[in-house]
Fold Malic enzyme.
Amino acid sequence: MFSLSGSSFTNNSLYGVSRCLTQSRKRVSVPMVVASVSSNGRPADRNVSVLMENTLKEMRENAPVIEKDSKSTVTGGVGDVYGEDSATEDQTITPWTVSVASGYSLLRDPHHNKGLAFSEKERDSHYLCGLLPPVVVDQELQVKKLMNNLRQYDVPLQRYMAMMDLQERNERLFYKLLIENVEELLPVVYTPTVGEACQKYGSIFRRPQGLFISLKEKGKILEVLKNWPEKKVQVIVVTDGERILGLGDLGCQGMGIPVGKLSLYTALGGIRPSACLPITIDVGTNNEKLLKDEFYIGLRQRRARGQEYAELLDEFMSAVKKTYGEKVLIQFEDFANHNAFDLLAKYGISHLVFNDDIQGTASVVLAGLVAALNLVGGNLAQHTFLFLGAGEAGTGIAELIALEMSKQTGAPLGETRKKIWMVDSKGLIVRSRMESLQHFKRPWAHDHEPVKELVNAVKLIKPTVLIGSSGAGRTFTKEVVQAMATLNKKPVIFALSNPTSQSECTAEEAYTWSEGRAIFASGSPFAPVEYKGKVFMSGQANNAYIFPGLGLGLIISGAIRVHDDMLLAASEALAAEVSQENFEKGLIYPPFANIRKISAHIAAKVAAKAYELGLATRLPQPENLVAYAESCMYSPSYRSYR
Ligand SMILES: NC(=O)C1=CN([C@@H]2O[C@H](COP(=O)(O)OP(=O)(O)OC[C@H]3O[C@@H](n4cnc5c(N)ncnc54)[C@H](OP(=O)(O)O)[C@@H]3O)[C@@H](O)[C@H]2O)C=CC1
Ligand SMILES: CC(=O)C(=O)O
Ligand SMILES: [Mg+2]
């Protein structure tokens, strides 16, 4: 007999572990399965297996950990038992996490289910005999079969739903599929298909993913967070659904975006799935169509604004910090710009937060531009930039370009900004409009006569680089692209808006209208284009290149704040990954197929910057940050359940 937190239990029962935990905390919501153990060491309950390696002897030795720090014991759960393999978490295996679901429950537990890949021995020791057909296959064959199945679907949304079903059935297989077929599956789980999924979320909704925090939860968000089964959350992607891609206000149905972004955190950045938490804050929607839709899943009211909104967000941000600590990374995603800039400014000084649309996008576009200089020549300061769209993405990118120019030339920001021009829905942003401009547009109001149409702005400003961040599809008309091609031997054209329907132009339009001279990249992917016998491949200028590596870098360094210099470091790391071979094909981004290696390099640069700025808390600094980042990455290969 030994004592634990004042409670006691005998060495043939684990029940006491659960009891004492319940006593040491007001409430334990860890998905822990605990059972009595019979004399042969097997649990009496067939839905539970005991992890044999973690003997009771080891438990006794480890027991004081619980006594000393009862809070840290609540970080376990079934995932830790089989050794989630990421060093991005505290590796301490807490002694009470000794049992996991088995039998029928194990087959229905997506974190541990292996389907037909359970070995004979595992089937025997985990009560699976008879629950599976006799054949045993390996994970590679499962991947092959599923890819064959997925390719049978012609409709992208069917592929999306098949992938979501897989994620809920067998998490490791989902990630193996995604990692090994990233170029083929990214458009399925991410843009463009995720956009359609969000639009139809109510109709296709099967099982909830992530946490929904609505106005109804005001005053009890802390309690709501406790309902989430994982206690070691390291990254949260949160949206309020007001600007989902370029599709506008999709309210609660925006949940597809945090879910999709976090699956990329794992697949592309190696953050373990159990550390990722998607959240949708539901303050209503102003989308009349959704409000009338009988299948809509959110609050059926118009959006809360002002104090009511601010109070909910405030409660949410403090509850998150209280629950997961100050080093949990919060990524703001797809908020409308009238909230996005203010939230970033407000919480950027007290929390580890960044806004992906403002900052992640800036970093990825700057990387593409730096790479493009290899093809078009000159340095950043020798170019002139024109944006269509002066919101989060547009002004975020513009500011980072201006900052980089300023660092390169020593010129003050006020000067470097003058090389950057913006057009919004009312035309060119000029000084005479200053009074009526939102604060984030003001730095871009330069001296010029008013210009209404984009094509005229192109002709007057004579940009070398044209960037679309308007969310308005097909706004780079033939006239606009031709004007760019008249002014420039190699016009640089980015059509960043997502999904594909909102892209400012297609790859085909960019290449044909510029007679094959455009250096083109887009937010959503386009298939290669053949023009006059030559094949043109365009890059995907999407923040998906940046946020997984940025997040990994912040986590492995234990960073407590995000700094602009980290975004510049991420950008530099990404640009450095574009090879000569890529340039020869006209590409300014490396292939997504190499993304895990790219993410490790981005993470290393970001972490190094965190250490340099004194913002890192994980000490000592690892000697080789790239190797360390790689060693921390989640692997989707199955574990052996002995
Ligand atoms: N590729 C990537 O990685 C990313 C792509 N994006 C995409 O960028 C787009 C914009 O996002 P975001 O910046 O957050 O959105 P915002 O709503 O913040 O900004 C949109 C801007 O576009 C302007 N605009 C809208 N329609 C037109 C039009 N027809 N002509 C000229 N200007 C127009 C708006 O003008 P006004 O201010 O006058 O209303 C506003 O300035 C979305 O489609 C999004 O998917 C966003 C982030 C990352
Ligand atoms: C890519 C992205 O973040 C967006 O389109 O909003
Ligand atoms: Mg976004």
Observations:
- The pocket of NDP (ligand 1) is lined by residues 243, 245-246, 337, 357, 361, 364, 388-394, 423-426, 469-472, 475, 496-498, 502, 523, 541-543 (CB under 6 Å).
- The CA atoms of residues 84 and 621 lie 23 Å apart.
